[in-house]
Amino acid sequence: MKAFFTRTAAGLVPADDEARDLLRSIKLGATVGLELSRPRNIRFHRLYWGLCSTIASAIGAQAENVSDVIKLRSGHFTVVATKTERLRLPRSISFSKMTGDEFKAFFERACLVVTEEFLPHMKPGELTKQIEQMVGITEAA
Asked: What angle do CA 5, 43, 74 make, to 5 degrees?
């Protein structure tokens, strides 16, 4: 079962009705296992694709192709060996394939690639900061 909780000074509290119902279904004093991950930030995901689309428009390419270049250059790929060669294939960044923390690390590498490949006048930290400000994400988020 998957449910979302918010960390407060008192501990973890249900973030929605589904999590509240799940918590109520557990007997008081029962021990349960818990796997923690931060849910993906949809704003970051949308902004990533906005960034890819903007770059694609500027260079006459498709956003998916720009994303593939970013994935390959940032090391987000799988190597497949065929009889004659080793191919690098971009890995998925879908919500089901990456946690929020994994996407954040990928996004930081992606910003480095973007500044190296497409925006050499800008430093990666500046790009990341501008993107975070655009979507209202702070360090604590």
From this structure: 105
Range of the domain at 55: 42-135
Q: In a 10 Å sphere around its CB, with 0-12 CB exposed, 13-18 middle and 19+ buried, how is residue 49 labelled?
A: middle
Cα separation, 24 vs 10, whole angstroms: 17
The pLDDT-based confidence of 139 (bands split at 50, 70, 90) is low
The distance of Cα 136 from the centroid of its chain, to the nearest Å, equals 16
96 and 49, same domain (yes or no): yes
In sequence order, what E strands does 16-135 have?
Answer: 77-81, 86-90
Cβ pair 82, 95 in contact under 8 A: no
> Based on the domain organization, do 63 and 29 belong to the same domain?
no
User: pLDDT of 99-137, one tens digit each?
Assistant: 888 998 998 899 899 999 888 888 877 887 777 777 666
Give the Cα separation of 15 and 70 in Å (integer). Answer: 34
Please indicate, yes or no, whether residues 2 and 27 belong to a single structural domain of this protein. yes
| Number of independent structural domains in the chain | 2
